[in-house]
Amino acid sequence: MCGDLETNIIACINNVLNYLRSSNVSSNVVGSNVFGDISKEFDVVAEDILANCIANALNDVVIVGEERGVRRYGGSKWIAVIDPVDGSSNFDAEIPWSSISVALAKNSPNTYLTLKDVVFAVVAEIFRDRMYMYRNGDVEIIGSRVSRRGLPKPMLLGYFETLDSYKPIESYMSLRGRVTLRSLGSAALDIVYVGLGNAEGFIDMRSKLRNVDVVAALKIALAMGAKAYVCDFNDALTIPIEDLIKIRCILVGYNEAYLTKLIEAIWKTS
């Protein structure tokens, strides 16, 4: 992928950041997305800004987004999986933990594209000038000198919304020892932070996430050395990217050892 194309995609992300940080943002409910979830005006406007900019930059592209679904421009040379506001509730409440995600893959005839085909991915923090970027097998962090920790912090991130969601946590602690729990509200940033070692694991068993929420972040985290398990797929790298799909459950560990303990904890409570 050429540098000019990468520069254009980053410029598109910056366009969305400029909008989301402006005084023109509205939280009015404007309908529902393709999954039937409530859509707020900033969700739709941000996706349109990002999709239109990427379409202009790439010309021939299939854009997969949560609000508008799948849109095709030209001859579909590229696939772009986008999530312009991951952590919408946080953003609306001015809680500074939300992000923009973009993942790109080169389309190929007679091939159903998956996460392994992603060649460029970015997760950008909305409330802070920091981007995490994957390309050519490496990860670059723009706006910070942070790097992957040699040992992860003893912290588990995820979504813990019901009493049942804590059962695997009890099992995990019996295997690993006590850890701190945090439910922060942006799956993409959570997964990237596991890759960095700012947490040792991420867990979501709600069947509410979609591939647009996690594809870019997983590409980045896996390139840093994290490992992931996704229900319904033998390998996280086989998550489809050409259409919108639900993620029934996802576990991400700092490395294989942490992921193995997470998986064991889930099986003990299933």
Give the SSE map:
Blueprint: H1 3-20, E1 29-32, E2 38-40, H2 41-58, E3 61-65, E4 69-73, E5 78-86, H3 88-92, E6 99-106, E7 118-125, E8 131-135, E9 138-142, E10 155-158, H4 167-176, E11 180-182, H5 187-196, E12 201-204, E13 209-210, H6 211-224, E14 227-230, E15 246-247, E16 250-253, H7 256-269
Parallel strand pairs: 3-5, 10-11, 10-12
Antiparallel strand pairs: 1-2, 3-4, 5-6, 6-7, 7-8, 8-9, 12-16, 13-15, 14-16
Identify the notable features of this structure and list them briefly.
five-stranded mixed sheet, seven-stranded mixed sheet, D-Maltodextrin-Binding Protein, domain 2, 28% strand, alpha+beta, 270 residues
Short overview:
The chain is α+β, with helices and mostly antiparallel strands and 270 residues long.
Describe this structure as you would to a colleague.
The structure is a single chain. Helices cover 33% and strands 28% of the residues. It is α+β, with helices and mostly antiparallel strands and 270 residues long. The protein folds into 2 domains: 3-142, 2-Layer Sandwich (Fructose-1,6-Bisphosphatase, Chain A, domain 1), CATH 3.30.540; 155-269, 3-Layer(aba) Sandwich (D-Maltodextrin-Binding Protein, domain 2). It is globular.
